[in-house]
Specification:
Layout lengths: L2 H9 L5 H5 L5 E3 L15 E15 L3 E8 L4 E6 L4 H6 L5 E11 L2 E5 L2 E5 L12 E3 L8 H16 L10 H7 L4 H9 L16 H27 L12 H7 L6 H14 L6 E6 L5 H14 L3 E5 L3 H15 L6 E4 L5 H12 L5 E4 L13 E6 L6 H8 L11 E6 L5 H7 L4 E5 L10 E6 L3 H13 L3 E5 L7 H18 L5 E4 L5 H12 L5 E4 L12 E6 L7 H8 L10 E6 L5 H12 L3 H12 L1 H5 L21 H14 L1 H12 L3 H5 L1
Parallel strand pairs: 4-6, 9-14, 9-15, 10-12, 10-13, 11-12, 13-14, 16-21, 17-19, 17-20, 18-19, 20-21
Antiparallel strand pairs: 1-8, 2-3, 2-5, 3-4, 5-6, 5-7
Helix pairs in contact: 4-6, 6-7, 7-22, 7-23, 9-10, 22-23
The structure holds adenosine-5'-diphosphate and magnesium ion.
The site of magnesium ion (MG) has 3 residues, from helix 10.
């Protein structure tokens, strides 16, 4: 094969014949049967044979060549916008022609636009396909005809007995009632006539089922291997002494919930081992993840190690810093702070205190993990609001802070609960703890969906709430593409509100403001010196002001459910009955309305995450759409959820009883993907 073709195939990840066999069709066409012209339906791709009647050029808004066709059952027009003289002349009246294309309703009856066609001799039998025609995912410069020839050639090779090895052990395959690999591949590449064209959407079509299972299994195994690689490596055993955790708990203004206690114990046990912990702590908004992280951090510091806490935004990192300072400084723990924006001198000092081991806790954004940051004795890494980081960064992080062969322990906390579906496919390299209980005394938040035509009423409501001593947020989400414009929108809103609400003290906060200014506003809001905080979605995660009881989200229809749930979680943290108003721009589509209604109907983050996943798809929810980590060839996380528990069981069995099959299976399906590269 020529180098141009090879290069194009490589773009699709196809290098070997095996790759070609596992490059599966996206859908099928049926070119196995002729349709009578009289039976054609608009919207359906069909093969017809007919006799050419009149062929002529029509000069309308767009010049086109029309060719009238009949077969005794009806008439069909072929329409070409691009055509040559020779082509026009070849459409001789009385000549038989075979066409394939999608039928549509034209101005004068049914037509096909630019069909694929072939002129037939008088007595020539129409050449029909023996199987359904596969349509493959492809890339520029590589046509379906070419791909079909290649896949056919590959199938012929395996017919000859050179099939790819079946890495699914026979006893497992029998138990699962799957067809042999070669049979499944052949049926997917060249399905028999009569199979429904949407067979690839049928969860139960056995050849599909078999390969979907194999693909999910391979992805799951790749993460399991990754996990094993880390759990096999060494970490400092962080022995709990209680020297710091005990006084901390004594001075804490509340007692831990049952769920918090359970998760703290799980973490404590992991940290005491000499293999690195990799634990995901999930908990709904407001479930109290921060204090759990603090206890893990104290255990590491007690054992004489450093802790790094990383948050996705500067605002959130700042908030952690102030909370941890308030908790830790009374215990004489040295806290340091690092972001991308420090002055050179401050930065140098900070780096020094980290490398010298003086700083015991480091809080920051991802600046915490730049190459110049060298820890003296890093024992634990805490990543907050994991979702924002994406799978790639999580994997990259694993290799940071390794010193003298010891890896730090790692704890990740998610802001948004992860649906089980995704957890199994994307987080199987982590152990999981769930804080499934909210602190006592929380009142459910009332959620209202309100048209922005009633903006005035909403503004009045703010006035009343603030007059009664409560505080409120007004969030302006991204309606413009750029951050600058988004900040502008927030600034404009603040200006308008200042005009109409003279008695209310209004502050503004957005991502483009200088840190001191933002600090100042945030502190004033916390101290109750500002009643209404107008903000961009920078406040989405983590901000914690218990006296705030009213949340207005402008243009709520533009946001994902999980994000709205996060925003709503900023209120309902205090004693007061809280309200969240989702303001939408009318008219609201039925779809958008039902989405917003999910929020009104439930406050369970897991349920909301599940719905978000269904609506937006796993790529969006995980934030890995561009990275390709979660791109499957045939599996569909939503459609194939039903297989997950079986996949997990089989993965266990393979790791235990057929370890030799695991690597090749992973390599086949995950190939150059990230987790594999890391393994
Ligand atoms: P999240 O899980 O959303 O990060 P936080 O850690 O910010 O939640 O906690 C939310 C609020 O609940 C904070 O004000 C925190 O001090 C408070 N809190 C946490 N745990 C408890 C508890 N066991 N009892 C009472 N309040 C708690
Ligand atoms: Mg938090």
């Amino acid at each position: 094969m020529g180098s141009r073709l090879a290069e194009r195939l490589e773009r699709l990840g196809i290098v070997t014949i095996q790759d070609l066999l596992f490059h599966l069709p996206q859908r099928y066409q049926d070119r196995t049967r002729l349709s009578a012209i009289g039976s054609l339906q608009p919207g359906i791709q069909s093969v017809v044979v007919g006799e050419i009647g009149l062929a002529q050029i029509r000069y309308g808004r767009r010049r086109s060549l029309l060719c009238l066709l009949s077969d005794g059952t009806g008439k069909l027009t072929l329409r070409f916008f691009h055509f040559g003289g020779a082509q026009q002349r070849s459409f001789e009246a009385g000549r038989r022609i075979l066409c394939f294309g999608e039928v549509r309703a034209g101005p004068a009856g049914l037509e096909m636009v630019h069909p694929e066609y072939q002129l037939l001799d008088a007595d020539e039998a129409p050449p029909l396909e023996q199987s359904l025609t596969p349509i493959y995912p492809t890339t520029e410069g590589l046509g379906q005809v070419r791909l079909r020839k290649l896949s056919l050639a590959a199938l012929e090779l395996i017919e000859g007995g050179d099939g790819p090895s079946d890495y699914l052990p026979a006893p497992l395959r029998t138990k699962l009632d799957f067809p042999p690999l070669v049979v499944a591949l052949r049926s997917l590449h060249r399905p028999p006539p009569g199979l429904p064209l949407n067979a690839l959407e049928h969860v139960d079509y056995p050849p599909r089922r078999r390969l979907v299972f194999e693909e999910l299994l391979a992805h799951h195994l790749s993460l399991r291997l990754l996990r094993r690689r880390f759990t096999d490596s060494l970490a400092p055993a962080l022995t709990a002494t209680g020297r710091l955790t005990r006084p901390f708990l004594e001075q804490l203004e509340f007692s831990l919930t049952q769920a918090q206690q359970r998760v703290v114990a799980e973490l404590a046990e992991d940290l005491g081992r000499e293999h690195p912990m990799h634990r995901l702590v999930q908990g709904d908004v407001g479930s109290g993840k921060t204090v759990v992280a603090a206890l893990a951090a104290l255990q590491a510091i007690e054992a004489g190690f450093q802790v790094a806490i990383m948050a996705p935004t500067e605002l959130l990192a700042e908030q952690h810093l102030s909370r941890f300072r308030a908790w830790f400084e009374p215990l004489a723990i040295e806290c340091a702070w690092l972001t991308g924006k420090l002055a050179a001198k401050t930065r140098r000092d900070t780096l020094e205190s980290i490398s010298g081991g003086k700083a015991q806790l480091l809080v920051g954004t991802h600046a915490v993990f730049q190459d110049e940051v060298k820890f003296a004795r890093l024992g634990l890494v805490v990543v907050d609001e994991q979702h924002r980081f994406g799978v790639h960064q999580r994997l990259a992080l694993r290799n940071k802070g390794v010193s003298e062969g010891l890896r730090p322990h790692q704890m990740v906390m998610t802001a948004t609960p992860i649906p089980r579906t995704l957890a199994m496919a994307a987080y199987a390299d982590l152990d999981t703890s769930v804080i499934d209980e909210l602190p006592p005394g929380r009142h459910p938040i009332e959620t209202a969906i309100v048209s922005d035509r009633r903006r005035d009423e909403v503004i009045e409501r703010i006035a009343r709430a603030c007059a009664a001593g409560q505080q409120a947020y007004w969030v302006c989400p991204l309606i413009e593409e750029s951050e600058a414009l988004q900040c502008r929108a927030a600034a404009d809103t603040a200006e308008t509100l200042i005009e109409v609400l003279p008695a209310v003290r209004i502050g503004l906060i957005h991502g483009r403001m200088k840190k001191p200014e933002r600090d100042c506003t945030m502190a004033a809001f916390k101290a109750g010196e500002i009643d209404l905080l107008v903000a961009t979605t920078v406040i989405e995660v983590g901000v914690d002001v218990p006296n705030a009881s009213l949340m207005i989200v402008d243009n709520a229809e533009r946001l994902g459910l999980a994000q709205l749930h996060q925003l709503r979680g900023r209120v309902g943290r205090g004693e007061c009955q809280s309200v969240c108003v989702l303001l939408y721009r009318s008219p609201l589509s039925a779809n958008a309305r039902s989405r917003l209604q999910v929020l009104r109907a439930t406050s369970d983050g897991f349920e909301i995450a599940q719905r978000d996943l269904e609506i937006r798809g796993p790529g969006e929810v995980l934030g890995t759409r561009q990275t390709g980590v979660m791109q499957f060839r045939i599996a569909d996380l939503m459609r194939d959820q039903g297989m997950f528990s079986q996949v997990e069981k089989v993965a266990e069995e393979m790791l235990r009883d057929w370890p030799g099959q695991v690597q090749p299976l992973v390599r086949r399906w995950v190939g150059g993907g990230v987790h594999y590269a890391d393994v």
